[in-house]
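Slide 14.
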Amino acid sequence: MVKAKRKPPSPQTLRNLYLLSGNQCANPKCLTVLINANGTLVAEVCHIKAAQPGGPRFDKKLTADQRRAAENLILLCSTCHTLVDAEPANYSVRLLSNWKKDREKRFAAIGDRLQQQYVEEVTDEAELADLEAPRTLAGYIKFLNDQNYSHTIDEHSPSTVRAYAGQLRNLSKGDRELVRAIVEKAIVLGGSREGQYGVSVHPDDLKTLSIGKGQLSNYRITKLADTLDRNGLGGLDDYGEPQLCITVPDENLTWSDLKAYLEKKGNTLRDLICGLEFRLLD
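Slide 15: predicted structure.
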């Protein structure tokens, strides 16, 4: 006799079984929960038709994939699993199939509603963020001219700033707020921390910043750096002394100049970085 090859159920199959179980043994006379209040898993996956020859209710007509398919599996507590496999004459394929059908039918409707509710509750902050893209940068250009600051802003600059704003929009609100705080910190510290292309700050200089009730950690700085790098907004330069870098929207829009411009209009960097109100530059 050729021994049937046993294959474990797929993760997706197991996930669906648990979703439709109602966290209860499929035996309608059993009240055992599959995951108890302490978080202990007591569920066992039972084959309605055995996975291998010689097992209870084995059907040689099934393939290995059919034996591990959801249709042939039922979740039971360990006691019921032992019982139904030890007494296959009393626990037939038809009986176990009815247990499974009744249990899953009962919780399928609930599961569909919960899944729909979950889908409706999932939102993308990037989609909700109200980006006000700049068109001309005319207001900012006038500010630079009034201050007698030289610049090379041209017809291509607005599109560069719009692209930057679009990437900034991909950051979470918390990350944008942190970017704003770091930029402000770099401006206050001054010196070589700010340049034409952005700010570069040693992580140790950021330890005065707090998130909630805790100090800004190296882990949080590293996570932000990875996010900035993925979005082309900066990153962590670890050549020599580490530096967290945050680029500017355009080489003619230094953070100090943007801060001065916005404050002259009665606005702040928070409006620009966190609120994405780049139309303020027009």
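Speaker note: Residues 93-121 form the longest helix (29 residues).
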